[in-house]
Fold each of these.
Amino acid sequence: MGTFSILNNISGLYAQNNLAVSNQSLQKTLFRLSSGSRITSGGDDPGGLNLADNLRANITALQQSVRNANDGIGKLQVADGALAQVTNLLTRAVTLATEASNGTLTSTQRLALDSEFTQIKNEIDRIGSLTQFNGGALFNSTVSIYLSDGNSAGSSTIATNLTSLSAAGLSINSVAISGSDGSIAQSALTSITAAISTVATNRGGIGSGINRLTAASNVLTAQVQNTTAAEDGIRAADIASEVTNLTRLSVLNQTGISALGQSNARLQSILSLLR
């Protein structure tokens, strides 16, 4: 029979320490299962937490950059839509000038056609000066889109220039299609056709900017997906493993409580010696 001692319950202390350890591990496992995260505090994985937080910052910057690119696409599309309408107006001007070039018309009739042509030039001026995006004038400006992953080395700017838009800028402000014969209108056709070509060139530049921003947005979206997967691999809990740990630690917790109870009960046997 072993020696009895009432000064220290060594087996009880051992059981208590083991129970505290298993309870701590059980609590951490429950935190991971309830949050879905492997890292619930800085002490779980300091290096992993640092990397995961940096990746999350990258993700937020990339997501905002995608929105920046899409805003830029929207702005350029507004400009392209305005220029498309200008092309329609100039196409109507070609019709008017062609009609005015015909020798069967009178001077009065050509003057009426020229009056409509003047309205077309005025509308082009109005479109150029009043077309806005987010409260700012659109033409004669630069659409500058900032893209970043949160680091200076991963930042860039895509810029698209929008030239001024006016009848004078298209060199048709002083062009007329009136006169006693069709010679003036015939000359005007050359200027109007050149203006259509200029507008088409400007639309081509805008289209290139839209395509570039679309490509950048697609790349950024892929970066968001891949970076999110990388962060998830670091931060996310392995649910299958944690469920296994939960079962094991629950058993340890129950056996630890039982062992502590048995250790305390063992001291009660000393009382039998005093009876």
Amino acid sequence: MNGSVSKSHNNRPGNLARTRGFSLIEMLIAVAIVTAVIAVVVQGIVKMQQRSFVESSKVDTVQETRDFIDQMVRDIHNVGYPPPKVNPSPGANCTTVDNANVACGLIYFSPTQIKYEADLDGSGTVYQVWVQLAAGSNGKCPCILQRGAVTKTAALGGTAPTYFTEVNGVLNSGDGTGNATYTISLPGAGSYTTYGTADVFSSLDSNGTTLNPVGTCTTASACSSIRSLQITANVVPSFIDNATNTFPVTSITSKARLNNVAIGN
């Protein structure tokens, strides 16, 4: 009888089995795993952002350079054009007369700077266009490719153009003899040496043969053998590629033939 009325000790309300939770060690392990996963995800996001910055900067730099070169090519195609408007005085000679109404074509050339005269907008006003390579703020490359224009009337009065159009990140600053005018200041600069020695501006004769070296000519007459110009820009973006720890280099080259050089000659 005693056995039939006895109850199990474990069935008493005060002795119900407790639900087992996480121990401190298990919690620490779980937190560590979650932290590691979050760290990997964040690292991936950071790398994606860095890659995005690099690619965006590269695209912007290339587009900026291409627009600059296209503008220069359009200018050169207009050198000395159109004759009726820019040369109202028949017989005017660019070698002896400083006539603000005469577009004398290419009036200065060096591997890092050119100056030419043209009617840029067809209005009959002659402009002087200066395109040059300028060193960076530290006196080294990456350099800045600049373009500015001023009316020939103002130029003859001693006014230099204001440079509005620029390309940053230019590595090459060749001096026409296979050497660089400016050293390159970038992490691992030695790997960019081959890009730095290329001439920004090269001159070609009427047969398309490179005049090497042509040196520097400072008058329309002295530059008369030059019939085409070539511009080369080896550019780098603002951000380094963390995957390779280098700056990706893009090389852009274009040629343009001068129209009627030295109108009035």
